[in-house]
Automatic annotation (TrEMBL):
Protein name: Phosphate transporter
Residue spans crossing the bilayer: 6-29, 41-63, 83-102, 114-132, 152-174, 186-207, 227-247, 254-272, 311-331, 463-484, 490-511
Highest classification ranks of the organism: Bacteria, Pseudomonadati, Bacteroidota, Flavobacteriia, Flavobacteriales
A single Gene Ontology CC term: membrane
Protein localization: Membrane
Record key words, sorted: Membrane, Phosphate transport, Transmembrane, Transmembrane helix, Transport
Ranges in a coiled coil: none
InterPro entries for the chain: Phos_transporter (IPR001204)
Length: 750
């Protein structure tokens, strides 16, 4: 029996390493968002600063994993074998849940997930015990720390609202003081702002960072709490003087200092406090095993009363955990995806929105605009004008297209870090349970709203994104509870076999999501479009148009061939997948059309006429994709409705057209990939031949109808396929003709 529990411990520690990776990937948004979004320093420097904070916080963490041992349930009410069931269910659920959110690029709370998983698994095992004995559900309160669970839920709701409102108010007044042209005002206002900000971050490190360190004595913590007013006053004076020296004598941008120190502080606190979320359960399981192994009592008879004590974690484990966390920061693509979500929702500039609008976001934005207009009407016109001047954004300086501008400036980045630090410090002082993820994210959303980053062009999408993220937080709690409860019941009755099956399923989904994320990241990188801030020349228009044409042609070519093949085999699953892939092509062209404003605005004076060319080019690409969509959708619906297969002769004719189209598309792709535009005349010369072939197929079908065709559904599908193929060919050749004319004209002007 002892060997069985050693195997379970081994599995738990493997899951702990995985949980460290997925947990850090999720919580990276807490301390990386502001620095990365503002580009205060290089990405390498940001990661170094964050890594130092994470390493120090993890290595010197107290390791008192009380949440896992007694924070949610009462261990003295459970036997050793039941405790191990709870811990295994929690770890499997946590890894699956956090990896799912990471793959979606959505931030969630590792604190909330671990607490609700512990609650769900403990409730499940407690109910099994009750049904096996008294059958009185009212005894459930004897197993669960109801007061702690209630505090968590209340703290989450309060923290979300307070963080958003506080972030918005502080950012609004900060912008009134600094405006977007803050450089000249830093010499005076920056001294006070720097003093307050650095003092707040310093106090945050004392309260939330150092308090979790193993080498910090209880006496020191008591001294800090008793003298907090004096600490705040002296740190304000000291850091204000330091800010004055740095600004006046060393010409230092104090905002960059605030962002770097704030990033370190949040990383330090994250590692020191949230490490319990990742390794607390396996450590508690290990400590449980040690208690049981020396007790001499069977696993089903030993109540875990001793688990309620405080036992420090060995330093070697903390060092190892810190190393894993640092490596994850540097190499996790999912961490970048989660951070990217927060940055996109709070960015000042326009661009592709990661979330679509919904009814609730439209309603909120509509009434917010009405409320804002009513408030604006109350203010005197002179006051409105002065406020608007403070929020007027400067023009973006020209820069290389490969370098994207900062998502927001250093003023907002500083406010994000300072407000989050103050709120988390206050929550710690008042012993309120809160999630650092929720606080930092909602502060960032509040500051972006106050900074007018959510204008009428983007507000409906940004609000929808925030609602999606918040909705995901509540889903986290619900899924964590139910998932852990279900897994605990399965493990309780299934034993080691159930554990093996569940761990195998977990490994499968981790690998699957990792490969899927890597594939998606690669596709996004390949298709990424930058909003142009530099001047576009004729040669660049030609080069960029060539890339767009080649990619869309390549996608259409694949979808057309697969539709013909899958229609011949009557393969519903592949037709459905193919139809979905065309939606990605539509999104790609929509993104290009969405950037027309920036394209035209960036044209140099000698290439204004190129805007007409680019607009018509995108229109032809849209027509080509629409024809392909019609073909794939109708083919899928035909098979999905269980209509008769197309006849052999019909499929054979479609394959003939497909072969000719593949030759055409292949030649076009080669032409634009290699920029061998002299071949365009040869491509256009084949125009009539291909159109005549399709017309011939139409005539043959008319003959079939009059002689042997007996299926009106087949006829509808076949004629639709041929006519849309004809439109596809015409749009393609019209696009080639348009590009040829533009190329010849552009060449003559060079």
């Amino acid at each position: 029996m002892q060997d069985v529990y050693l195997i379970i411990l081994g599995i738990l520690f493997i899951l702990a390493i995985t949980d460290l990776v997925v947990g850090v990937s999720n919580d990276a948004i807490n301390f990386l968002n502001s620095a990365i979004g503002s580009k205060a320093v290089s990405l390498r420097s940001i990661l170094i600063i964050a890594s130092l904070g994470v390493a120090v916080g993890a290595i010197f963490s107290s390791g008192l994993m009380e949440v896992a041992r007694k924070g949610i349930f009462l261990p003295q009410e459970f036997y050793f074998e039941e405790i191990m069931v709870i811990f295994m269910a929690v770890m499997i659920t946590d890894v699956l849940l956090l990896d799912f959110f990471n793959s979606m690029g959505l931030p969630t709370s590792t604190t909330v997930s671990i607490m609700f998983e512990l609650l769900g698994a403990a409730v499940s095992v407690a109910l099994i015990k009750i049904f096996n004995t008294t059958n009185d559900i009212s005894h459930l309160v004897n197993f669960i720390n109801v007061e702690k669970a209630s505090e968590v839920i209340f703290g989450i709701l309060i923290a979300i609202v307070i963080a958003f409102i506080t972030g918005a108010v502080v950012q609004y007044f900060s912008r009134l003081v600094f405006s977007f042209k803050y450089e000249k005002r830093l010499r005076f206002a920056g001294v006070i702002f720097g003093g307050v900000s650095l003092a707040a971050i310093f106090y945050f490190i004392l309260i939330k960072g150092l308090n979790s360190m193993a080498f910090v004595s209880d006496h020191f913590v008591d001294d800090v709490n008793e003298n907090r007013i004096q600490i705040i006053i002296f740190s304000l004076l000291g850091f204000t003087m330091l800010s004055k020296i740095l600004i006046s004598f060393f010409r230092v941008n104090i905002l960059k200092i605030i962002v770097m120190v704030g990033t370190f502080a949040l990383a330090l606190a994250f590692a020191g406090n949230d490490l319990v979320n990742f390794i607390g359960v396996p450590i508690a399981a290990w400590q449980s095993y040690e208690i049981w192994s020396v007790s001499g009592v069977s696993a089903s008879q030993l109540l875990m009363s001793d688990l309620a004590g405080s036992v420090p974690t060995p330093e070697i484990i903390l060092i190892f955990a810190g190393g894993v966390m640092v490596l994850t920061l540097w190499f996790s693509g999912k961490a970048r995806a989660v951070v990217d979500t927060g940055v996109k929702l709070s960015r000042q500039n326009e661009g592709a929105e990661p979330f679509g609008a919904n009814y609730l976001s439209r309603t909120i934005v509509r009434y917010s605009i009405m409320f804002g207009a009513a408030v604006s009407d109350v203010l005197p016109q002179k006051v409105r004008k002065q406020i608007n001047n403070q929020f007027e954004t400067p023009k973006t300086k020209n820069q290389p297209r490969e370098i994207a501008p900062p998502a927001f400036d250093l003023v907002r980045a500083s406010v994000n870090l300072v407000v989050a630090s103050i709120l988390i410090s206050m929550g710690t002082n008042w012993q309120l349970p809160l999630s650092t993820t929720y606080v930092t994210f909602m502060v960032a959303m509040g500051t972006s709203l106050a900074d007018r980053a959510w204008n009428q062009e983007s507000a409906v999408y940004r609000v929808a994104g925030v609602l999606n993220v918040i909705g995901g937080w509540f889903v986290t709690a619900l899924v964590a509870f139910l998932g852990a409860a279900i897994f605990a019941a399965i493990i309780y009755y299934g034993g080691l076999i159930a554990i093996a099956v569940l761990v195998s399923i977990t490994a499968f989904f981790i690998v699957k999501n990792t490969l899927s994320h890597a594939k998606k990241a690669k596709a996004d990188k390949r298709q990424k479009r930058y909003k142009r801030t530099d001047i576009i020349t004729i040669n660049e228009i030609t080069a960029e148009s060539s890339v767009n044409i080649s990619q869309v042609i390549s996608g259409i070519s694949k979808r057309y061939t697969k539709t013909v093949d899958n229609l011949g085999y009557h393969d519903l699953g592949k037709l459905k997948k193919n139809n979905k892939k065309v939606g990605e092509l539509e999104s790609e062209v929509d993104d290009l059309k969405g950037n027309i404003y920036y394209f035209i605005k960036s044209l140099d004076e000698d290439s204004i006429e190129a805007s007409r060319f680019y607009i018509h080019l995108l229109d032809y690409l849209q027509e080509m994709v629409n024809s392909t969509r019609y073909i794939t959708r109708n083919s899928f619906e035909h098979v999905n409705n269980n209509h008769k297969n197309l006849k052999f002769n019909q499929i054979r004719d479609l394959k003939k057209i497909d072969r000719k189209l593949q030759e055409l598309f292949g030649e076009i792709k080669y032409t634009f990939d290699e920029h061998d535009f002299e071949r365009l005349d040869n491509i256009l010369a084949e125009k009539q031949q291909l159109l005549d072939m399709v017309s011939e197929m139409i005539e043959k079908q008319i003959t079939r109808i009059r002689t042997s065709e007996s299926s009106p559904k087949n006829t509808k599908l076949y004629f639709g396929f041929l006519l849309e193929s004809k439109d596809l060919i015409s749009s393609t050749l019209n696009l080639i003709q348009l590009f040829r004319e533009f190329y010849v004209e552009a060449k003559s002007t060079l």
